[in-house]
Amino acid sequence: MAAPLSDRVRRIVADVLDVSVASISPDSSPETVDTWDSVHHLNLVLALEQEFGLQFEPEEIDQMKDMQRILAILGSKVPQG
Amino acid sequence: MNRSEARQEIDRLIAAEDAPAAARALVELWAHEASPSAGAFVVAGFEQLRPHLKLLPYRLAILRSFTVEPMVPLLRAAAFCAGIDLAVHVADFNAHVQAMMDPGSTLYGFSPDAVILAVQTRDVAPDLWDDFSALSGDQNQAASTRVKGEFRDWVHAFRKNSAAHLILHNLEQPRQPSRGVLDAQPGDSQRAAIEQINRELRAIASEHRGVYILDYDALVARHGRLSWHDERKWLTVRLPIAARNLHHLVGEWLRCLHPLTGKVARALVVDLDNTLWGGVIGEDGMAGIRLGTEYPGAAFQALQRALLDLHHRGILLAICSKNNADDALEALEKHPGMLLKRSHFAAIRINWSDKSQNLREIADELSIGVDALALLDDNPVERQQVRTTLPAVFVIDLPADPMEFAHVVGDCPVFERLTLSAEDQRRGAMYQAQREREQLEQGITSREDFYRSLQQEAEIAPLAKATLARVAQLTNKTNQFNLTTRRYTEQQISDLVASPGWNCFSLRVQDRFGDNGVVGVAILRQQGTTSEIDTFLLSCRVIGRTVETAFLAFLADHARGKGAGRLQGWFLPTRKNAPARDFYSSHGFTAAHQNGDGTLWTLDLGEKPLAVPEWIRLHVLNGDQ
Hints:
The structure holds 2 protein chains of 2 kinds.
Chain A: H1 5-17, H2 38-52, H3 58-63, H4 67-77
Chain B: H1 3-15, H2 19-32, H3 36-49, E1 56-64, H4 71-81, E2 84-90, H5 96-101, H6 106-109, E3 114-118, H7 121-124, H8 126-130, H9 137-161, E4 165-169, H10 190-207, E5 211-214, H11 216-223, H12 225-228, H13 231-237, H14 246-261, E6 267-270, H15 281-288, H16 298-312, E7 316-322, H17 325-334, E8 345-351, H18 355-365, E9 373-376, H19 380-389, E10 394-396, H20 405-411, H21 422-442, H22 447-454, E11 456-462, H23 465-477, E12 481-482, H24 490-498, E13 502-511, E14 514-527, E15 530-538, H25 547-561, E16 566-571, E17 590-594, E18 599-604, E19 616-620
Parallel strand pairs in B: 1-2, 1-3, 3-4, 4-5, 6-7, 6-9, 7-8, 9-10, 11-19, 15-16
Antiparallel strand pairs in B: 11-13, 12-15, 13-14, 14-15, 16-18, 17-18
Helix pairs in contact in B: 1-2, 1-3, 2-3, 2-4, 3-4, 4-14, 9-10, 15-17, 16-20
């Protein structure tokens, strides 16, 4: 079985930003993670798109500014259960 | 092991400082999961392991008209897994013109080994891309002429400022021509206008050394023009390629980098049962194995055709199979479905011995290192055994479905070549002649008699246009009989011989079994009355046949003729060049100086001249220098 959505996202965020999974919290954002710059944000978006086989709208990408909102937007696009 | 566990295990191996195991695990992770997130993890892992691994440093600059940043970690991860530590410089958006034209640009400051120019049709030819329908025939022609002239100027300026390799993306075609089906009819055509520019790019590449084309249009077409792009990302972040396709472009870059960095396989060792044919010859017999023009045997013929392509590219083929030799050889020689013949194989091991041992023997027989071998075997257990015992061998993972075999071989970057010399194309035949020479040698007792029986003719010529590519290739791939192991690009050699005091000579050897082609290179630099051998190398094909003595005797004569009183040369030891260690001492040179890198040997040219062995006929040509 696939891991829960939040676990998959945390692993991808940790990979792309080169930080430990344990350090990622719902509040993690470009303000709290040093490596989370604009290039890494794009890499993160692309990594999520490939992992979940979807494409984000430009408006969604603009809103994906912390873990909580990333999970909310993904949750609305990925069928769960 | 799931993906999180795989990462934890790798972190543990890195913390335990088990670099080889950690590197193997990273390569395996990347093989299973070539995603943007895995790419970042693999790069971070290798960066920690870097001091403990033998990686080839290589500097790549990317000039671009679109966002390539997300592809850089993917490229670096793939390169790390291939043993290349890639430093990547990405130029500013649309700064390629300034970067190439200005000798003081950050591009040249970066001192790249290779440069990729990745510009899109819509950026360099916006009129042809967006407004084609509105153009008159003359305007259309003027646009093509302008773009062709720009590329020509850029490449010309680049060559003046840098000896690095240059890879040019060609221009992609639009998804749909702006005039619809009319575009294919006689008259003005958007497609033809873009094709015309791409033809010109090939012409430009043929006029400059070390300039190559990446067929970006074919890459896009191969993966589907309709699904290649992500138009929203183009409009918002200037990334025209969909996330799922990024690794395809990275893969294509890597296919160019393998031949440029020398990370290539020179021989492919193949298994027989369920690889070259379907079924087991020892059990199914000649009539039972699947091999022919119809399904399912056609899959194996397709693979054999792919192997023939490699053979014609100069990649040696060899067989390593656990089988009864008589059964297997009968199928090889007599089965009507076989496209490959026994003569296509440069070495054959059909026995029940250990695969790794056989691979070592094959490498020895072909005079190449095991790191120049690739293995094609359907059996995952054999593959794993070779991966563990001979990690330098490039092991190809075959899928379960034989219909995929030919594509998998075609996708292997280690078989890619960017240039092909006449020697490459005839290499297989030359190895066959070598086997005959060895059989002759075994029948003759005295060395001198053997040399005489070879009827060798050595032809020495100054560097010429026709031999430049081969000469550069030899400096880059000769490891064993190579006194200084200095690697040069074609451009660097051209520059050297244009400098005062420098000379470069090639050696070609023929014998009763055929033409070995250009097999030796010497580069000589004269300063005052001292002539120094900068480079002296011999292809392993002709080691031990005394042609090196003839070549050295010629160099001594040449130096003396130019007024030199002394001939000197360094021997710089490497892990592989032991065969050349005693070269200078056995030809009367004396050791004059030694440092941490090697020994400088000298010969007083006033003493009696070095003799060309009496069994070699020497011809000295005047070149076009």
